[in-house]
Amino acid sequence: MIDQSTLDGKVITAAFDLAASPGWAEVSLRDIADAAGCSLADTMERFSDKDDVLKVFFEHVDRTMLTGAGDVEREQSSRDAVFEVIMSRFDAMAPYRTGLKSILQARQTSLAPDPTFLRMTLKTQNKILQAAGVSSAGAPALLRQLGLARIYGQVVQIWLDDEDAGMARTMAALDKRLRQGEQTLRTIDDVAKSGERACEQATAFASRMILAFRAAAERHDPTADTGSEEGAPPPDTTSASPTGADASDTSPGGSPA
After folding, report:
1. Where are the domains of the chain?
2. 72 and 63 in contact (C-beta within 8 Å)?
3. 152 near 125, Cβ under 8 Å?
4. Distance between CA 28 and CA 40 in Å, rounded?
5. Per residue in 116-164, pLDDT tens?
């Protein structure tokens, strides 16, 4: 739980208490400041609006989750490590579950998606993966974040209604979906590798065809014929006799008759 002696702790606790009672849509930042026993001026120095209160709340939750990630065993599978990190996140949010349920329900009825909230969600998934020791580099990392965001969103809805202290339903749902997601990612990786191999083979084939075409063109090039040289003049066929006269028309004296 967030330290109640701090401004963050007072404001966040008041915000979630109010969200659980009248509903998040009806709550204003002034209402939160009054319930927290803080002046509006002090509150607005830290929080610009009530959505900013949520942002700071999730930052505290992320920090608690990452602090606890040091206890995650490095030898276990990535799936089991992700499972532990997400469950520790649920533990950190547990004191605020009723208010959080009201807030998430209010957001689901909103007509337009909130890009800021979506970015926060993806950042959280990235933190979960890194805390679990899962690679966060390159295009596959984005696929993992998007896939985990979908799984996390589904399991959060189950967690919000899971009144069991041991969270048996939540753990079963999370384990099942992580296994399914792991198989999906493995299939995607296999397809990606097959695509890379196909591209390499196609490139090699194209290179061989280009070389073959060049060799064929050189064999049929007229300039490659060694029987004549390019630019050589045609042979002189008139050197055997004078132009326009036959040998019989010449007199013994060597002049015309």
Report:
1. 53-95+109-193
2. no
3. yes
4. 11
5. 778 888 889 999 998 988 876 666 777 888 889 999 999 999 999 998 8
